[in-house]
Amino acid sequence: MNLKKTKSFPYIPNTHDDLDEMLKEIGAKSINELFDDIPNNLKLKKDLDIGESLSELEVLNYMKHLSNKNNNINNLTCFLGAGAYDHYIPSVIDHVISRSEFYTSYTPYQPEISQGTLQTIFEFQTLICNLTGMDAANASVYDGATAIAEAIIMASLDTRKQQIIISNTVNPEYISVVKTYAKALNLELIVVSEKDGVTDLEELDSKVGDEIAAVIVQSPNFFGIIENVSDIEKITHRGKKTKLIMSVDPISLGILKSPRELGADIVVGEGQSLGNSLSFGGPYLGFMATTKKLMRRLPGRIVGKTEDLDGNRAFVLTLQAREQHIRRERASSNICSNQALNALAATVYLTTLGKKGLKEVALQCAKKAQYAFNILTKSEKYKPTFTKPFFKEFAITSNVNEEKIKETLLDNNILGGFHLGKTYPQYKNSLLYCITEKRSKNEIDNLAEILEGIK
Fold this sequence. Notes:
Elements: H1 16-26, H2 56-67, E1 77-78, H3 91-97, H4 100-103, H5 115-132, E2 136-137, H6 144-159, E3 163-167, H7 172-184, E4 188-192, E5 194-195, E6 198-199, H8 201-207, E7 212-218, H9 229-236, E8 243-248, E9 266-270, E10 286-290, E11 303-307, E12 313-317, H10 340-376, E13 383-384, E14 393-397, H11 402-411, E15 414-415, E16 418-419, E17 430-434, H12 441-453
Parallel strand pairs: 1-15, 3-4, 3-7, 7-8, 8-9
Antiparallel strand pairs: 2-10, 5-6, 9-10, 11-12, 13-14, 14-17, 16-17
Helix pairs in contact: 3-10, 5-10, 6-7, 10-12
């Protein structure tokens, strides 16, 4: 395609004279010559159908028109969870992370110069350790699913075993990611069934042995139920060197026992609920924490605190021998970056709320979820799918078609719940509802009223 013969669109600032000068410099006669390696039958034989060029004002108006087709939680009352949660985000978070020194920062290749960035990572690691009770945490990974996948690598490297057990009550999307990692790493993934909404302990007990590298459990699990981690821990550690990997909702740790107290070896989770918006699915951040014994297996970056030559507090990247850019052939992972801005938001969130604030958020979630569960199941039109203790999510079952329920709710500006039948066919008539601290009594009562009115 000869650009000089085509209609001019000012999407690219280079002029035709600029193009001629660049082609002359590299010794090419035309732009087409740059693509000679592509077979002619694969090349587009016509101009791109991208319409007339627009002014900045026209582009802005067009993009706003497109974005208005999306519905979002500013217009809807959200009762949807299933891994991404509508928690309140204090305004101070956007104020801090929008500062230029944070918003525009990237991976510090000369890290000790970036003392501010290193300090924010150090504070994040400290808060995650305080929250989970573990000894060491990294600077974050891409999301909750990636965190579990990286954890199985840690466990396999440490135990030199190839078999991993994962409970079917773990978030299905996480299981899919773990399967992908396991296949590439020649690890055998064994999925343990769920029974009445929790991990089948008898099946788990029958499969744990000395050949197992790790057992993965999520609590609260995908159904919102609090797992019997104490019993799972006993079964897991019966295997020689077998590690317990525990995935958690960080908000729940405001009122539940820490993973360290429950005997976890590696703790992972999705940090989106810590001051990060839903953002239509991302970007999010995964957090990882572990024991001192396993900290050299952690992927990514770890920041330590020290003193400089003048005795002043200073921050450095530490234990770098595990990282890909230092010892590539023996690296614990190929992850050598982190979700710095999202982790900063989580740091500001946890610092702003403090212990009491986080506990209050967790209590409100739990109490409001219990109220919603009671009022939705009061008439017995909607029945509990499970009878186990839950944190902020619960499933209810009815004879009403789940798509009709969701459409009716959406017509009333309500988002939720999640159709369990998509992943678990045995629960085809069950919807999973999530109640966070943002939901008011009036909103919950309105949800109950609308559900009761559906025939």
